[in-house]
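Q: Here's a chain of 770 amino acids. Please give me its 3D structure as tokens.
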Amino acid sequence: MNSSTRFRCVLLVLAVCAASCGTPTRAQALEPGPIPQWIWNSPFPDAVDREWFSKRIQLTRLPKSATLWLLADDKAEARINEVSVATVVGTRRIQHVDVTGTFREGENRIDVICDNDAGPAGIALWLKLTDQQGQSTVITSDPTWTVRKRRTQGDREFATSLGLLGVFPWGNPEGETEDYYQWKKALGAGQAHDAASISVMPGFEVDLVHSSAKGEGSWVSLTFDPQGRAIIGREGKGLLRYSLPPYETMEVINDTLEECRGVLYAGRSLFANANNSKGLYRLRDTDGDDRFDEVKLLKQTGGGVGHGRNGLALGPDGMIYTIHGNNVRLPEGYKPGRSPLQHLAEDKLIPVDWDRFLFDADAKVPAGHVARIDPEGENWELVAGGFRNPYGIDFNADGEMFTFDADNEGDIGTPWYRPTRINHIVSGGDYGFRQGTANRPAHFAEHLPANIDIGLGSPTGVKFGTHSSFPGRYRQALYALDWSYGRIYAVHLLPRGAGYVCVVEKLLEGSPLNVTDLAFGPDGAMYFVTGGRGTQSGLYRVRWGQEKSQEDPLVIRNLDSLGAGPSVERAQLARRLRRQLESFHGRQDPAAVELAWQHLGSSDPWLRHAARVALEFQPVAEWSERILAEPVPEVSPHIEEHLRQREWKGLLLLIEEQLRLRELAGLLALARVGEPAMRTQLLKNLSHRRFELDEWCHLEFEERLEALRIVSICVTRMGRPDADICADWARRLERLYPLADDEEEIHTLPLLKQRLCELLVYFDSPTVVA
């Protein structure tokens, strides 16, 4: 295929994608404010299933008006205070329902009862309450909702987010359109977009501070120096320094560094991630004349510049953190040292020949990574990887690191497509992006999940509001920029275990508003710049417009425990434990094995990950026998009967689950770092303990996927077994291959069949084709 043909194919894919979003009737799908999320009880919904979702809210007075809409896959009924208000079927059409008369002062309860026939499942809800003064509160479906199987069932758990409204497989509802190419309106505009036409959440105000003039370039990064002046990175060569009004002066402070996508002031130094100059630089004023007379290259990096050297952040440890897209290569002579990320691999069981023709075919791990470097440029350590093109990076007040990673729009419609997403970056984390068909969905055992799938877009800068003058929870929010759609999200992170879930609001949106980076200024306001791809740039300011912060007078949400009270305290303890486990990443320590062993079976995936990575850094001889020798977890009949009599069956099941999780996590660690000589024993262990038919049937769906993944990693990293072992595994897996009438979970069969089928092909099964 020649380049012209490939280009036409890309245009066709994008055109089909745009058409799938509906007829373009307006450019803004939702007004600024909370965005509904698709929710369910898990990422793997059961077929022929009914789920009951609930949300409690506290009203200080009755609303003047209330409007609700609901989408459901496949059908759902909404009730407010036991009164049925809406019944819907399908995910395409929004129908607003007046529910004003169903509320009361004090506590109110919203219930949604949803039925899934087969395939994907979820609900998305939007409820707007307006008081007598015209102030509105919007409540949406999100992970703070609780879910239970039946109304009479007492046990509740929090819902699982499947992504924001607009994510695949559902896409945008009919008539809700978005303009992916709004940025093109800023080409040759001559003046930055008028702030008055930017839609913004109530309480906030936006104004244009400065429009880039001729010769000032197109802007891609922003920070502030200790004097409160804006430092702006240009898409071309150089850096600008702008003094805010009333001084309003613009000057060039560097004209050599090319495309500084990341700029950061730390101490008396300005650090610049110069993408087209292919390096991280430090600028200093050594003679006190307010000019950077020293420009030092700290570290040169190889590779391309498309998905290149992006944002910078100062870590709580005093190190400089840099985030790179998947075109960047490691510095020449790189040595891992005590890097937390060392066991990354492609792990592609069966190579696909035509992957070499796809976009970024040469992007191999550890492309797409986060590194930390000391201010002198001596030590370079990999922290996490598996990203595609994350542009921004920042730490919250608790020292936790986050980014907004990109999708690959060319993968839309393929099974391996992954939407843009917010990622909590932890030590040793592999977030699963691989080139082409090797790209990994979130259910792969060795990878960490997204905190929230955002959908289509082009992620750019991120920044926490920690040093802002914003009120309440907006000071703790993560602000994430989407360049394609011209919007800024406010992502509220709610603790869940050792990680977080998200509630997302659209802070503002404009067209064109090709946002590239943001920073908080000396006045506590948010400042952001527009630019990129040669477009007109502007510097904007976002301020809280009300005199004082106050709770919404109409409604107080989050009566359920997520994000408040005991759940926050438990999450703090879980994060503290996760960091203790992470302290063993990159180094050997006799205490690591015992501590990791205690938490390998944790139901919290973030703790389980931290424990497994800690174990992988310890000498394999110190823990491999324990993994291989541990018997299948059983509870004696006497103890089981005792627990049942005392109605502790739930505790018994929890213990059994934790032992299974610990066994699988340990085997996964061994498959990743064990010697090839261990392959036969590891496969034998797996075959008898997890791949006998009766054992297989006792595994949860996610556990089955993990067991299959362990086999795949084992043979990928340790080498192909001999013919007899391959034949034995082929026969064993053939017995497990599910048929549609063998299980109730009909819709999950394609995912399970895909994993089984790949292994059957690898092991030369004579029946797999049929």
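Q: Can you summarize the key feature?
A: Confidence is low (pLDDT under 50) at residues 1-28.
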